[in-house]
Each structure stands twice: as C-alpha cells, then as structure tokens.
Design brief:
Blueprint lengths: L14 E5 L2 E4 H17 L7 E5 L4 H12 L3 E5 L5 H11 L3 E4 L10 H4 L3 E3 H6 L17 E7 L7 E6 H13 L9 E4 L6 H14 L2 E4 L5 H11 L3 E4 L1 H8 L13 E4 L6 H11 L3 E3 L1 E2 L6 E4 L12 E2 L4 E5 L12 E6 L11 H7 L6 E9 L5 E6 L4 E3 L2 E3 L1 H9 L4 E11 L3 E10 L3 H9 L10 E4 L18
Parallel strand pairs: 1-10, 3-4, 3-5, 5-6, 9-10, 11-12, 12-13, 24-25
Antiparallel strand pairs: 1-2, 7-8, 14-15, 15-16, 17-18, 18-19, 19-20, 21-22, 23-24
Helix pairs in contact: 1-2, 6-7, 9-10
Length: about 475
C-alpha cells in the first residue's frame, strides 16, 4: 500500500485541481508527480527519509506530497508564511533531507543556512527535463510513516505527530463508507490549509481519492471564496469557525452557497449565532465534526445525520469514544467527561518524545484528547471545552468556549477569545478579548442575559485582530 495511490485509477481527462486559471487533470497530475518523483530519487531520497514541504494550497503542494510519499519517504508540511526562525525550530525537530518550496514560499529560497536545510524551488524543478527513469510508487508497510504533522497536542507545547499510511487511508475509507459520502462529481473548495490535518486529509487527499475536483484557494478571503463557489459550482464546503464567521458577514449575494449540498465545520466549536446566520441567509445548515491531528483527524461526523447546531455529530464507524472522569471511569449519559478515543486513525506517538506520548496514549491504544464532552441519548457528542483551558472561578469551572459562544451572539462582535487570569479574590478570573464595534458596557449587559454570574468576564480587551492559528483554532497562549 501507499497513500500516493490516491490519484491512481481515475480517468486521465478528469479534473483534479483548479488553481486560478490552471486546470490540472488527473493524467497531468500523475505526470507531474512522476517527474518530481524521478528527480527526488536521483537526489537520493528514498524510503524512510523525511522531506519538508513549504507550499500553500497550490498544485505544488499536491505534487510534492505525492512524489515524496511515492518514494516511501515522509512528508513534513510547514506553513510557507512562517518566519524563518519558527521554521528552523520545526526543521530541527525532524532533520529533513530537503525542503521543497512552492510558489507561496519563495521568500525561503536562498537562506539555507538560516533554515538549516537545503531549499529547492519546485517551479524550477518542474522546468528541468527529466532524464532519469521513474522508480514508480514504492510499496510500504501499513505502519510506515507518511506524515510528520506539527501540533501543539494536548499540552500546548510544540510537537510532531507521527501519522502512518494506514492511519490516513483508513480515515479516508471510513468517510467514504459513511452516510452520504463524497462523490466523484462533487467539487470541493480547498480553502483550509493543507499544512494542517483537516485540510490535508479531509479535503485534499480524500477528495483526490474519490476522484472529485478541488478548487484551490491559496490565501483565505471570504468574498473571494464565495466568488469561487459561484463560479465553479462548488458542492462541498469545509471550513473552520472563523471562516464561517466571515462568510456570515461577507458582502456577497445571498445565493452564494446555492450549489452547496454539504457544509462542514471543524477545528473548534461553531458559535450558534454563526450557524443560524448561515442557515437564515444562505439556506445552508453547517454540520460540525470533531477530530485532532493525532486522530488523522476524524472522530465524529455530522454528515448524513440530522444537524444539531451545538453537536459535533456522531462517532465515525470503526472508532470508539468514551467519556471518563478524573479517575478514568466512564461517566453517565448527559454528564461531562474527558474524551478518550481508540481506533485505526490514532497516531503513532510524538517524534522523539516518549514521555509526552506516554502521557496521552495508553499501551492498549486509548488516546486522551484533553477535550471535555457530553453524549446525549441518541449518540450525539457535544464538546464543552479543553481541560487545560478551563478557568476556575471561586471553585466553579468556567469553559471559555461557552463564554465565547455567548459573546459572539452579540451582532457587533466579530470574534471572541476567552482566557483565565490569576485573581487574589477568586483564584482566577475570566478575561474576554474582543474584535468588533461594541462597547464594554454593551457586552456586560449582553452576557448578563446569557450566562451565570461566575462566568461573566471581569475584564474586556478590544483588539483589531484576534490571534487565530491557520487551522482555525484560537491561540489563547498569545493572550494570557
């Protein structure tokens, strides 16, 4: 087996990727991958080597990842817009043989010493005639490493998660066997970063495996997204909550999502107000899912089930989820517990960090996510918050996501991130960081109508932009 086979078996003339004015068919994509695979093999890249990939949502990302995988080597996607010092930290953790650079990473060329690795321009490589034979796709073992994915993990500290060929392929197959799976005639908007697991496996690799077409958006812009959806008749749209918030308020026609047959949100909780605005304005109900880098990533899906706005859906067939208390004992239905997951998509640990691996992954395969959830009687999962983000006010647990959901209901709030800060009187206090045209007085009156007193923010800070990671998750540590 080999993940690189996702592009095999589709008709040569079938559209695979649309990147601006460039349309790449599956036949053309296979040719591009074959040429780069030959070049990398001639450079000595082989099974077990690692190669970093700094490319945006562009054809070069797909070509680079599939060429490296086809040789049995390991791909480490990195954000091409990251500053060199940050990239150096990631590169030092993995020690890749090469750094492949796409169009969006051109600023990284010529600074090999600063990065600590040789950087090669994929545009230049594509223009070089290939003289060496293509070694073909190498057959690998299911547990062979496919991707090194940067993650903050459960602890919040930078780590590299090890994902195998089988991890990602199994999740793709499970999504394909679920209710109302993606079809070859579907068209997906690729606006989620491919350097993160949601965009990588759920959008890019799964879409290519199905044989559908992916319209690439290199940098997210809400108005441009909606224009691309209308122009290309996009039918499947997946985004993180900040994207849905911007689509909800975009200056675009109200029929912009008329071709969408399935809409999904993941990476963080989708505020109820955003769900309602999308539904009422565009006529689309957004189904939430849940997953983590360490689960490749899908744990639950909303696709195919009646949408419940506050739920992340039901557990994917073949995955087992339990909710447990502080002693590791199962909690009753309706009670809060930490989400622990077991299944074929569970990662193989953190690279060179056995202590942290052992802290979250048991010997019998249970992954402790650090998320707090509730199951209802019908098997729908509801996420409450991250354990590490809980703010304890006078002995009461306050979950930031709950406060953020209340804040975002205010029509003039564009975004909200809640953190906890030390307080002599209460132990900790709730602090709200807000973007929007709204006053503190208005917000204090607003939350008083939606939250118990101990959950009210004690302080408000107003920012032009909130720190949001490329995967859509709030960067709370930047505000603490």
């Amino acid at each position: 087996m080999n993940l690189a086979n996702v592009i095999e078996g589709h008709s040569d003339d079938r559209r695979a990727l649309i990147d601006g004015e460039t349309v790449v068919t599956f036949g053309e994509l296979r040719d591009r991958v074959s040429a780069l695979r030959s070049q990398l093999a001639s450079m000595g890249i082989s099974r077990g080597d690692s190669v970093a990939l700094a490319a945006g949502n562009e054809v070069h990302f797909a070509t680079g990842a599939l060429a490296v995988l086809g040789l049995g080597a390991i791909v480490m996607p990195v954000n091409p817009q990251s500053p060199p010092a940050e990239l150096r930290l990631r590169i030092d953790m993995v020690q890749p043989r090469l750094l492949l650079v796409g169009d969006d990473g051109q600023g990284l060329l010529g600074i090999d010493d600063e990065l600590g690795v040789e950087a090669l321009d994929m545009t230049t490589l594509a223009a070089v005639p290939v003289t060496d034979p293509d070694p073909g796709i190498v057959d690998v073992e299911p547990d062979d490493r496919a991707f090194y994915m940067a993650t903050s993990g459960v602890s919040g500290a930078p780590k590299v998660a090890i994902l195998s060929h089988y991890n990602l392929r199994w999740v793709q197959e499970a999504m394909g066997q679920g209710l109302d799976p993606m079809q070859p005639d579907d068209i997906t908007l690729g606006c989620l970063s491919f350097a993160h697991i949601f965009g990588l496996n759920v959008v890019l690799l799964y879409g290519l495996r199905v044989g559908s077409c992916i319209v690439l958006q290199r940098r997210f812009d809400a108005d441009e997204s909606l224009r691309l959806i209308r122009e290309h008749g996009v039918t499947v749209l997946a985004g993180a909550p900040p994207m849905w918030q911007r689509w909800a308020k975009a200056d675009a026609p109200d029929d912009s999502l008329s071709t969408i047959r399935f809409a999904a949100s993941g990476a963080a909780a989708l505020p109820l107000g955003v769900f309602e605005t999308i539904r009422d304005r565009y006529g689309v109900e957004v189904a939430q899912g849940y997953g983590l880098t360490e689960t490749s990533p899908v744990v639950t899906m909303g696709r195919g089930y009646a949408v419940r706005p506050s739920s992340v859906g039901k557990v994917l067939d073949g995955v087992t989820v339990a909710l447990v208390d502080d002693n590791g004992m199962p909690v009753d239905i309706g009670d809060e517990g930490e989400v622990v997951v077991k299944g074929p998509g569970i990662f193989h640990g953190y690279l060179d960090d056995q202590a942290m691996t052992d802290a979250v992954l048991t010997a019998d395969g249970w992954f402790w996510t650090g998320d707090v959830g509730i199951f209802d009687e019908e098997g729908y999962l509801y996420l409450v918050d991250r354990i590490k983000d809980v703010v304890i006010v006078s002995g009461f647990n306050v979950y930031p996501a709950e406060v953020e959901t209340a804040l975002i209901k205010h029509p003039d709030v564009r975004g909200a991130i809640v953190t906890g800060h030390a307080n002599e009187a209460t132990g900790e206090m709730v602090v709200a960081h807000i973007s929007g045209d709204v006053s503190e007085t208005e917000l204090r009156a607003h939350v008083a109508q939606h939250l118990s007193r101990h959950k009210w923010p004690a302080e408000y800070h107003f920012l032009d932009e909130l720190p949001i990671a490329p995967n859509g998750k709030p960067i709370r540590r930047a505000l603490r």
